[in-house]
Amino acid sequence: MMKVKDFHFDLPPELIAQDPLEDRASSRLMVLDRNTGEVCHRHFHDITEYLHSGDCLVLNDTRVIPARLYGVKEDTKAQIEILLLRRRQGDVWETLVKPGRKCKPGTVVVFGEGLLKGTILEVVEDGNRLIQFSYQGIFEEILDHLGQMPLPPYITHELKDKNRYQTVYAKHDGSAAAPTAGLHFTKELLEQIQDMGVKIAHVTLHVGLGTFRPVKVENVLDHHMHSEFYMIEEKEAEKINRAKAAGKRIICVGTTSCRTIESAAGEDGTVTAGTGWTDIFIYPGYRFKVMDNLVTNFHLPESTLLMLVSALAGRERVLQAYEEAVKEKYRFFSFGDAMLIK
User: Fold this and answer.
1) Tens of pLDDT along 142-170?
2) Which of 75, 173, 215, 228 has its CA 20 to 30 A from that of 5?
3) Using CA atoms, how far apart are residues 263 and 284, in angstroms rounded to an integer?
4) What are the CA-CA distances from residue 196 to residues 31, 50, 56 (Å)?
């Protein structure tokens, strides 16, 4: 049995990064050799030294929507907080509502003094609510005006600039959380990487809040992953497949890019373009079909993300590297430092 507590490590709370750095690429970079366990300490802009012409860097170009809304019940004016999880169809969204007990089907919630209204249609699995929104104008513009970025629960500081919780290449609206490994890249750094002959492939996976959901079972194999929507365009799949066929490395930026291409790949490692839903759960013992190397942030103890990283580099090596990261006072989680597993 693989126990969740086998992925535990002690993290001093002061190492949880509360604010993003001014310069994205100035964060620290721990480089872990997955074959030897050797670790070296660099800065993120040094990543160019570990990339070679012909390699393919895979980026998740999802865009975080300001999905947290604060409103009041139309009748009692009681305060309600709503988090948009996913669009079901048209103006009907699956949401997380607090406090849920006050929001029975038929309840109307008003946002921004009537700019936006939401009617609770029904309660679905996990206690989530389906809400039908009504408004004048363009929903995305209203959301941009009224909504707040749904920062992870461990970040308590207010985010001054919404764009710092977006990658510089974010394109397709739909995420409830940022693919945070990509936050370290600047446009200049990406241009420099392309000028070196490194291919850049974009895929899209809309990150759900299940990313932050703790694993509540004792046995890892009993955990069920939430499902997330992904898209891979034909020309992007071709970039990955051509690099793979030429014997070059596929380097994923973030666990979300990794889960996307591993979900879309056949047993022979060929990535198929298309759209779909994935609930792939990667933990030690998994055989990677496409990905060779990974750029990632430092993850929560006992999380599915830490399990994925351990599947690539080995649990003991990863926990040793994390121990060193704590000792060297690396910054952890979404706004923290990065790791390259090569």
Assistant:
1) 999 999 988 888 888 888 888 899 999 99
2) 228
3) 16
4) 20, 11, 11
> Tell me, what's the pLDDT at 211?
67
Q: Quote the mean pLDDT of the chain.
A: 94
Given this model, what pLDDT does residue 101 score? Answer: 82
Does 101 fall in a domain? yes
Residue-level pLDDT at 154: 84
The answer to whether residue 155 is domain-embedded is no
| Overall number of domains in the chain | 2
Rounded to two decimals, the pTM is: 0.91
Neighbours of 5 (CB within 10 A): 10
pLDDT of residue 212: 64
Q: Which helix (H) or strand (E) holds 232?
A: strand 228-232
Give strand pairing partners of 228: 278
Side-chain-side CA neighbours of 172 within 13 Å: the count stands at 16
β pairing state of 338-341 and 28-32: parallel
Residues 51 and 173 placed together within one structural domain of the fold: yes
- Tell me the three state secondary structure of residue 293: strand
Amino acid at 42: R
Q: Which structural domain, as residue segments, surrounds residue 78?
A: 68-146
CA–CA gap between residue 16 and residue 300 (Å, rounded)? 10
Mark whether 132 and 264 lie in a shared domain. no
Q: Which two tokens stand for residue 38?
A: 């050797």
Q: Count each helix (H run) and each strand (E run) in the chain, helices first.
A: 6, 17
Tokens encoding 232: 């891979």
Residue 258: count other Cβ atoms within 10 Å of its Cβ: 30
